[in-house]
Amino acid sequence: RQHEGLRRVKRAWVIPPISVSENHKRIPHLLVQIKSDKQQPGGVIYSIKGPGVDEEPLGMFSIDKFTGKVFLNAMLDREENDRFRLKAFALDLGGVTLEDPTDLEIIVVDQNDNRPLFRQDVFTGHVVEGTGPGTCVMTVDATDADDPDTDNAALRYSILEQGAAGMFSINATTGEICTARPGLDRETVGVYNLTVQAADMSGDGLTTTATAVIYLEDINDNPPEFTKEEFSMEVEEQAAGVDVGKVFVHDKDLAGSPNWLAKFTILEGDPEGAFAIRTDPYTNDGVLSVAKVGAGQLGDHGGGPMARLTRGSSRQPLDHEVRDRFELTVSVQNEQPLEPGAPASPRALATVRVRVRDVNEAPIFRENPRRVSVLEGAPPGTPVTTYTASDPDTRQLQTLTYALLYDPADWLQLDPHAGIVRTKRELLHPSAFLQGGWYIALVLARDDAEPPLSATGTLSIEILEVNDHAPLLQPPAGVVCGRPGRGGSLLLGATDDDRPPHGAPFHFQLSPQHPQLARNWSITRFNVTHAVLAVLVELPEGPYSLPLLLRDSGTPPQERQQLLNFSVCHCGRDGTCEDSVLAAATAGAGITLGALVIILGSILLLLAAGAQGCPAQLRHPLGPPQAAQQPLRHRGLHQRGGDGTQCPPSPGPPSPVGLTVPPLSPQGLEVADSDPSVPPYDTALIYDYEGSGSVASPLSSIVSSLTDEDQDYDYLSEWGPRFRRLADLYG
């Protein structure tokens, strides 16, 4: 039973919680006295341990070790420590534990020693202007450090100050602020500053205040208005893309917002689209400017975007002489549409009067460039055109003068007062100054104002081609076999100094004056610039001269009768020339040694025949002598002997050089002498070089390499006095 008694806790040793008010100022203060039932001779020793004693905060509590009285030694703060849990011990004088440790709990009782605190000094809210009552804007809230289970922390909210209107109310318990009345107008009051209060003890205790700032958000309930009904400004004529002036507006809505930004339109007075108007984004005023020439002004005029673009794209510069003033009707509105029910503006329209100032303007070539045509070869002094400018300054007396600013070939002359352009020299093709047949010159027109202004006009002169050149036969380089068929053909070519369409196609034909030529020769077209000469009968070897007629395709066509000089060679079985060296030499370019020998031989034969009074037998393109007995209407076809009698044709074999000539008659000689277009057939044949290129390959298989530079003509001086001249030329 004694053991069971030791395990029971005595009532005196069980200590109930002890309450003590915070901020207790009477120190030390007796809290409680503990007592052990284990009384020992000599007494009991008491002690306490725990926070506030031997743990932080140290020294708050103490105990009388002999009496067991527990004292408060310092002021308590419930907000720092709302209770302390200690352990109490009872020992004998020898330090032996008499009782098990018991709990000692000290509760700190709250006092209303803390004011409420708002979570922030300034609360911010927004509400759209015009909002009706009952719209909640924001919530303010505060805290209290006191015991939340007591009235010390029971808060109530109120609005201490918001102005006379009383537009807002606050929920006393939650702190929510809502609109209380209609009539919120940002343009009247844009910001509301409310002083709100929080009080503990359910509104009767400690208080604190904060600020609630409520901003009214703008709506487009105010249209823009012109500051006055009329504006006046002026601008110089010919100006483009420059600002003329401003029209001023006022809008009560929030500056910089779409509800404030103005948009201007020119409604009347500018059908040509001469002006444009835009908004200054900083001041919101309208900036009137002269539209750029040729640029459409979308959004600046009435009548729809397409109509405005069409009108602006054909606009002419401002011209004082055409129109010296404009009276524009301009409207203004916001980028954003007005709120329903917003009042219309009485000043949504304004009149803008613009005066166009007169300035000196440069002359204008109404036709620029001027295109004219002149026939090539026109003689100097031929009128080309009258190229004048006009002076836009019709209200100013000014005189225009003209000068040639650019005339690269110095072909033209210009009357400085009348602007008449004439040819100064003959205009001919070809010229390095022509571009595709056009000659470009620049004419300068200048007025006599101070300072003078000028303009440049482009004069494009087409030099019309005239068919003033006949085709020119290009001698072929090669020989032809005197046998029909294979090898018996020759490619002919021609050139013409005229430009299309007065040149090719060329027409080649045998001389119509000698129809007998068609017995031995034929000409067929190869292309527009070449033809093929073919042998029809077998011909003897040697040099030949064939009269041809060449005609171009111009209007009117030009034709020229020319001699074709070539050689007929001895043909082999395969149609090639066997004696190719001689043939190449006789048909080559220039007077080579072979040609010279033939010419000298012909001269000797003619001299010998002349001593007998009759001409030598010369080979004719018609072939054998019996084929050339018909009278021909050409120089050299008839001839008298030295004694005045007609010489009969020689019965002997033909000479290797020249052509067969029948007896000549005085009538034939007269007709031939009066024909300036054809050289005499009874003269030495003239050979020339056809050039380095050919549209056809050489017909000869062997090309002669003999040239004048290769030959040694010194032996001519040994041939006697008759060859001294040749020796001087070629030796």
TrEMBL record:
It comes from the Eukaryota. One of its GO terms (biological process) is calcium-dependent cell-cell adhesion via plasma membrane cell adhesion molecules. It is a single-pass type I membrane protein. One of its GO terms (cellular component) is adherens junction. The chain crosses the membrane at residues 581-609. It is found in: Cell membrane. It holds the Pfam family CADH_Y-type_LIR. Residues 12-118, 119-226, 236-365, 366-473 form the Cadherin domain. InterPro entries: Cadherin, Cadherin-like_dom, Cadherin-like_sf, Cadherin_CS, Cadherin_Y-type_LIR, Catenin-bd_sf. Keywords: Calcium, Cell adhesion, Cell membrane, Cleavage on pair of basic residues, Glycoprotein, Membrane, Metal-binding, Repeat, Signal, Transmembrane, Transmembrane helix. GO terms for molecular function: beta-catenin binding; cadherin binding; calcium ion binding. Cadherins are calcium-dependent cell adhesion proteins. They preferentially interact with themselves in a homophilic manner in connecting cells; cadherins may thus contribute to the sorting of heterogeneous cell types. M-cadherin is part of the myogenic program and may provide a trigger for terminal muscle differentiation. This is Cadherin-15. The gene is Cdh15.
